[in-house]
Amino acid sequence: MKKNGSFKLYGIFGYPLSHTLSPAMHEAAFRELGIDANYIVLELIPDAFKKLMRRVSGFSLSGFNVTVPYKETVMKYLDEVRPEARAIGAVNTVFKQGTRWIGANTDMEGFLRTLVGDGGFRPSGKKAVVLGAGGAARAVVYGLSREGIREVLIADCFPEKARKIARDMGKIFKRTDYRAVEAGTLEVKEALQKADVIINATPLGLKAQDPAVIPEDWIPRSIAKKIFFMDLIYNPAVTPFLKSAKRKGHRTLNGLGMLLYQGVRALELWTGRKAPVDVMRRALLQALEAKGK
Ligand code: NAP
Predict the structure, then answer these.
(1) What's the CA-to-centroid distance between 161 and ligand 1, angstroms?
(2) How confident is the model at residue 222 (pLDDT cuts 50, 70, 90)?
(3) Packing angle of the helix pair 256-271, 22-33 (nearest 10 deg)
(4) pLDDT-based confidence at 293, cuts 50/70/90?
(5) Do residues 11 and 249 touch, judged by C-beta distance below 8 A?
(6) pLDDT for position 19
(7) Which is catalytic among the residues 51, 71, 171, 189?
(8) Which parts of the chain fold into alpha helices (H)?
(9) Site residues for ligand 1, CB cut-off 6 Å
(10) Catalytic residue list contains 71
(11) Which one of 111, 157, 160 would you pick to mutate in the ligand 1 pocket, going by the greatest count of ligand atoms within 8 A of its CB?
């Protein structure tokens, strides 16, 4: 496509970024919508990120994504941060309104859209266990709470991180009961037996040598009820966590839908157009397959 006056530039900032599938997904969408644009990857060390963001008002970008480890730090450079992103404590999408840069969290929306839309799981009145208390877990707990989940147990190796999420969310969502515990304890085992949905929001499962996030014998058999297991990881498509859940007869979903729908929402915020979801899904799957080769 010819680069003329209407050419737009989007991108992603983070470190490391060698794994990112976002350029494939967004450039496929731009082509489909006839938008003359590119999506660039800027892998930046903290000092470079800081220097770049100090000049954000003069950016010639039309919008950008931010990923680990800058989802929190980016907030101080923006003109406005959407309330839900502020509450989650992370911005992953930045878009322009006039001359102002606005930060949003589309991870949360992506998570809910795949859980409810693809998985058919409705959080209202249910019980959840969230494993991990990092940035992704905060988006997950916020999303579940917004949809009326009744109870959430958050487990992390550093229980103070889990307690912080419970405290922060408890101030916003009065109808949800939060508990925060240390990973690997009896309280987690007991909560797993009663849960309707169990979410892996830790990075355990990304690497073949990772230990199990929960022992398989802590997962009840699906005799009385089927539990919904979701892993935020999408590569590998079936993590040991999801494999164990499948073996016990439960329903499972990986994180590809979350990645797709956070991108869908970002594209819509940037362009004001309806995103071509199927085109973006296909591009993601192709990029994933190419990475596997
Ligand atoms: P993060 O900030 O590193 O947080 C992960 C948290 O899990 C950390 O607090 C970590 O503790 C904790 N943890 C590690 N092992 C644990 C265990 N056995 N039990 C309980 N907690 C444990 O990572 P993140 O950004 O939140 O991302 C988490 C995962 O979600 C990653 O795999 C990421 O790729 C995925 N993700 C997917 C999407 C998507 O679109 N599908 C979007 C965002 C994130 P330590 O600090 O001690 O390690």
Answers:
(1) 12
(2) confident
(3) 50
(4) low
(5) no
(6) 87
(7) 71
(8) 22-33, 46-53, 83-88, 106-112, 135-146, 159-172, 186-194, 240-247, 256-271, 277-292
(9) 68, 107, 110, 131-137, 155-158, 161, 183, 201-204, 206, 213, 232-234, 255, 258-259, 262
(10) yes
(11) 157
